[in-house]
Amino acid sequence: MWAFVFKRTLIALSVALTISVLCFSLLQLSGDLALSIGGPEATAEQVEQIRKDYGLDRPVVHQFATWLWGAVQLDFGRSYYYQSDVTDLVVERLPVTMTLGVMSLAIALGVSIPLGVVAALKRGSWIDRMAMAIAVTGQAMPNFWFGLTLIIVFAVKLQWFPAAGSDSWQGFVLPAIALGYYATPAMMRLTRSGMLEVLEADYIRTARAKGLRTGTVIFKHALRNAVIPVVALAAVELGFMLGGSVVIETVFSLRGLGQLAWNAISRNDYPVVQAIVLIIALFYIVLTLLADILNAILDPRLRAR
Amino acid sequence: MSNLSSTERSTAPASPLLSVKQLRVDLPVAKGTLHAVRGIDFHVERGEMLCLVGESGCGKSMTSLALMGLLPRKAQINADCLNFDGIDLLTMTEHERSNLRGARMAMIFQEPMTALNPAYTLGNQLCEALRRHQRVSRKAAHDRAVYLLERVGISAAAERMRQYPHQLSGGLRQRVMIAMALMCEPDLIIADEPTTALDVTIQAQILHLLRDLQQEFGTAVIFITHDLGVVARIADRVAVMYAGEVIETASAQALFKTPSHPYTQGLLRCIPSPGKTPPGSRLQAIPGVVPSLVGKLHGCAFCNRCDQADEICQTTPPLHPIASGHSARCHFAHPLASSAQINTPEVVS
Known about the structure:
The structure holds two protein chains of two kinds.
Chain A: H1 2-29, H2 33-38, H3 44-53, H4 60-72, H5 86-121, H6 126-140, H7 143-157, H8 170-199, H9 202-209, H10 214-226, H11 228-243, H12 246-251, H13 257-266, H14 270-298
Chain B: H1 2-11, E1 18-29, E2 32-44, E3 49-53, H2 60-68, E4 76-78, E5 81-84, E6 87-88, H3 94-100, E7 105-108, H4 122-133, H5 138-151, H6 157-160, H7 170-182, E8 188-192, H8 200-217, E9 220-225, H9 228-234, E10 237-242, E11 245-251, H10 252-257, H11 262-270, E12 320-323, E13 326-328
Parallel strand pairs in B: 3-9, 3-10, 7-8, 8-9
Antiparallel strand pairs in B: 1-2, 1-4, 1-5, 5-6, 10-11, 11-13, 12-13
Helix pairs in contact in B: 4-5, 5-7, 7-8
Subcellular location (chain A): Cell membrane
Keywords (chain A): Cell membrane, Membrane, Transmembrane, Transmembrane helix, Transport
Family (chain A): Belongs to the binding-protein-dependent transport system permease family. OppBC subfamily.
């Protein structure tokens, strides 16, 4: 098991290094930085000065090494626009995005797994059809529209939750539902199809032949095997929620990473963009690593690979 | 019918462990109803090895699943009598059935590679059977599992307890399945082709093991197989199935000495024997195919493949008693009938 974890961690680290190279290359591909920092009115001398100040006159490899060395120490340089440390900006926004992501995932898992299990057990029943309807609606509905609908119903009409802001946990409920609902259908369908497949397995018949209670057969023997692909999907979905919550954060005016990324992109604030891209990529890597480890715990056959 | 049961009763002590009368299993299929088991009668004595023989699709697996109460949900089960040690299985609730399963009747399946849950250790899967049915400590369950693993010939049993199914070969897994079936000391084990998926050398070992354990623990076994070679090695009594019916029951000795149903005779002719079958000669086969079990069958199910078939075979034959404990579902069944000599059929009513 530890050999497996070690191997997976090494792979994850090499992926992270590759991504940092790509991430840095983005900056190089986006044109002459000194020109865009200086703006249209800058003179040639000013541009030259900026180039020197920001170290843009040095060789690319040198620049990369400096940037990477900084990134490893969590120093991503200074924001061109906010004129403050990128790290401070990110650290300030990170809790909002993390809270939103984790709450959304909890909602998505809390709905999709029970619903998937029941839909599989009562295949063809009204509850199965209802679950399918929810899945289709969820996949078809744009989440900004769903977010706005939630605001109209629960914030404006019923006034149960605030429409915007991240000052209290209540502020996260509606955006977490909007974001979580988006991830629910895929996980529910995967749980349902996984359960249907596993319930036909020989070892389920063996479990029943031992006289085990229905609950034991379903939860101990079937669900554990059915949920393995769902874990991998959940990791990807959480990564998506952390990185792709731009729309929801905008709709609900949450000051999270997504919003920061959106502002930074529209203002050519490259150090911020770079840092966010790298951080979100690292989230994906860590989440995938965790999902791999969790899967190996669930399915011992994976440990050998 | 009354004639048959009286002959059976005279040979059987008190009451059999399991008695089955007119068991029927119907499955709805696209084209109508598949009558997988079409009214079969048999019984199992305490501590005996009954072999249920027949080719694929003859209803032997459906019979075993019906006995265990593990039929697919859409299957319909009917019987005049399905009695296990004085308990009527037909009127039991699902919960009562599950109390019996694993505790008093256990099952060993054909595919050892897929019959164990890949996610749990062998120890976990062995112990849960016992702890479901009996109030025993973890330690006691563990000790019993280790003891049984050793009894089924698995070395380093204590270490094996912590292993997962994928770390074991097919033969070892089948041994684990046997140990699992024995966990609660059941009165009856149903073994559904337990050696079919194994290498020939392993097959022999598993057969020996089952036979030894059956005698040691005094467990009754219904051994389902399509292989008459296996039957010859282990059976006390045999029930031959064809197209959802039991067409002949006899002691193993009587069956091989005086097979009375043309189908049984055909099956026996199909076994090539070294020394008797000339090298290079064509292997024997029964011509024709098994009739479809969708819809009603009229007359003798075997008549379209039978070289002795006559007009009378258009009517359903009863089970004719041939000798004590030996009967065959054939109009021509006769105590003196033997494979080659029936040319002038005579009707025994």
